[in-house]
Amino acid sequence: MAAEATRLGRIAVDPTVVHGKPRIRGTRMTVQVILELLAAGETFEEILDEYDELSREDIVAALEYAASVAGGLQVQALVA
Predict the structure, then answer these.
(1) Angle at Cα 60 formed by Cα 74 and Cα 75, nearest 5°?
(2) Nearest Cα to 26, choosing from 67, 57, 3, 70?
(3) Which residue, among 51, 54, 65, has the nearest Cα to 9 in the 3D structure?
(4) Which end of the chain is least crowded, N or C, by CB within 10 Å?
(5) How far apart are CA 67 and CA 77, in angstroms?
(6) Is the confidence at residue 3, as pLDDT, over 60?
(7) SS (H, E, C) the chain
(8) 8-56: pLDDT as tens digits
(9) Distance CA 19, CA 40 (A)
């Protein structure tokens, strides 16, 4: 559970950045874009090669965030 909380801390929401969409902290890469790339069949390695600002932990954080939202859990919006 502690590792999950740490990874979810990588997600930020700020109404002044990318229209307030959840994104990877310190970047403009949204959770949505990461999920769309994965859904299109891109591997972690392909995404990491294409987006230097991302780490493997960022991709996992996006998946955990999406799972939490899909599961109906309340996810704290973090302004950064």
Answers:
(1) 10
(2) 57
(3) 65
(4) N
(5) 15
(6) no
(7) CHHHHHHHCCEECCCCCHHHCCEECCCCCEHHHHHHHHHCCCCHHHHHHHCCCCCHHHHHHHHHHHHHHHCCCCCCCCCC
(8) 899 999 999 999 999 999 999 999 999 999 999 999 999 999 999 999 9
(9) 24
**For tokens 């959840």, what's the residue?**
22
* Greatest distance between any 2 Cα atoms in the chain: 32
pTM score = 0.84
Provide the token pair at 15.
């109404």
Retrieve residue 70's tokens. Answer: 């899909």
